[in-house]
């Protein structure tokens, strides 16, 4: 199998502006196949679901295809795929639903490693229900989330364990399967945030031991759509606040309002894009094509990341945060003598897009002692980045004026 980075890059119109897009952790660019799928849905005509006319049938087919595609991507079941505007909204929706079954004195376990979208909804739901929040802590030096601490955190009152599959600033990939196994042994449900991990490593909700798993298409070359994946039987057990006439069946009862049908066509196209990154691919089921392609993505990103990380590590004024054993291709760093905002502005002037600040890793940047002083700079790789992007980034960082010393 080959990974043709030139061909892949040519399918992304936005990359033609000459910038190095190292900001993919906040949202990736979109290939022409996704753009065409969205525009085609509008051109052909779409209508609300349930009508006796072709435009309505097209919308119903789009929704069904999107559920199947997300199930293929995550290893879930189409009937357990809940679609929504973004993962944060879906976490809030399910925090509210799950909290209906909590009682005062119950406990939940959260992680300081997580994006705030898998923290604050639970903290707020726990406060309303009188539930105790317990915290899994991060090793500040390594950026790891030690599994052993869960033995002390879990009790017979634990109702939920929420954990990320990868940190969105350090890239840390904790041992999710081991954590969820401990949670299940204690009788708790598990909620896994796969928003940052999915673009870099093909998810498997069963292998993760995830009762609930969330991901966002705009992190893997799709439109701004989120998806939650769970066992349909588990979804059946949960209440949903909904309009009286809207469907009561699963998963639709958790999807409020009319769906963005054209964008859902883009979700399917984005997953097909991911499934076709390693060529030539034999005629295989989409899940298998995704597995082969994402292995190629991982190898490509790791090769580039070795250069990026080694280059940053060789610059005397650069401080890198976290050194987890298993990580995604993302670096979080500061440059002595410059604020993170100044570094990001300098890089933008040199044709490199990066983010700076806390990146919504609110708890983690607090633990690292960075949150209140501007956070740090975040540079991450997506499957469409190439060596030229990395070289331009490293050259621009090296050109920053040296700290006075």
TrEMBL record:
Q: Which domain of life is it from?
A: Bacteria
In Pfam terms, one family for this protein is Aminotran_5
Protein name in the entry: Cysteine desulfurase family protein (TIGR01976 family)
Cited PANTHER family: CYSTEINE DESULFURASE, PYRIDOXAL PHOSPHATE (PLP)-DEPENDENT ASPARTATE AMINOTRANSFERASE SUPERFAMILY
Which segment of the chain is annotated as a signal peptide?
none
| Phylogenetic placement of the source organism | Bacteria, Bacillati, Actinomycetota, Actinomycetes, Pseudonocardiales
Q: Which residues form the Aminotransferase class V domain?
A: 21-393
Q: What SUPFAM superfamilies does this protein's entry cite?
A: PLP-dependent transferases
Q: Which InterPro entries match?
A: Aminotrans_V_dom, Cys_dSase-rel, PyrdxlP-dep_Trfase, PyrdxlP-dep_Trfase_major, PyrdxlP-dep_Trfase_small
């Amino acid at each position: 199998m080959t990974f043709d980075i030139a061909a892949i890059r040519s399918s992304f119109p936005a990359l033609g502006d000459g910038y190095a897009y190292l900001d993919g952790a906040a949202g990736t660019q979109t290939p022409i196949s996704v753009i065409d799928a969205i525009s085609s849905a509008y051109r052909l005509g779409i209508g609300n679901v349930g009508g006796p006319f072709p435009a309505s049938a097209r919308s119903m087919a789009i929704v069904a295809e999107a559920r199947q595609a997300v199930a293929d991507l995550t290893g879930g079941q189409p009937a357990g795929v809940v679609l929504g505007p973004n993962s944060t909204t879906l976490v809030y929706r399910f925090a509210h639903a799950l909290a209906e079954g909590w009682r005062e004195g119950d406990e939940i376990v959260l992680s300081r490693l997580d994006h705030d979208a898998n923290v604050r909804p639970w903290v707020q739901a726990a406060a309303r229900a009188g539930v105790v929040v317990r915290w899994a802590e991060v090793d500040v030096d390594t950026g790891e989330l030690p599994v052993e601490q869960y033995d002390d955190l879990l009790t017979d009152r634990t109702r939920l364990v929420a954990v990320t599959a990868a940190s969105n600033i350090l890239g840390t990939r904790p041992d999710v399967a081991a954590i969820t196994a401990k949670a299940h042994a204690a009788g708790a449900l598990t909620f896994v945030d796969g928003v940052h991990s999915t673009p870099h490593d093909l998810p498997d909700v069963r292998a993760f031991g995830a009762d609930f798993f969330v991901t966002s298409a705009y992190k893997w070359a799709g439109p701004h759509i989120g998806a939650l994946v769970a066992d349909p039987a588990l979804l059946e057990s949960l209440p949903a606040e909904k309009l009286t006439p809207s469907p009561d069946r699963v998963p639709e009862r958790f999807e409020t309002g009319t769906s963005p049908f054209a964008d859902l066509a883009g979700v399917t196209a984005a997953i097909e894009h991911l499934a076709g990154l390693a060529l030539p691919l034999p005629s295989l089921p989409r899940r298998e094509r995704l597995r082969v392609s994402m292995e190629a993505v991982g190898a490509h990103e790791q090769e580039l990341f070795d250069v990026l990380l080694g280059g940053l590590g060789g610059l005397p004024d650069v401080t890198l945060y976290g050194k987890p054993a298993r990580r995604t291709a993302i670096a979080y760093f500061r440059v002595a003598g410059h604020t993170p905002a100044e570094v990001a502005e300098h890089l933008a002037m040199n044709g490199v897009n990066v983010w700076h600040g806390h990146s919504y890793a609110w708890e983690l940047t607090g633990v690292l002692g960075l949150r209140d002083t501007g956070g740090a700079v975040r540079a991450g790789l997506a499957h469409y980045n190439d060596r030229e992007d990395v070289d331009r980034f490293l050259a621009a960082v090296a050109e920053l004026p040296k700290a006075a010393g």
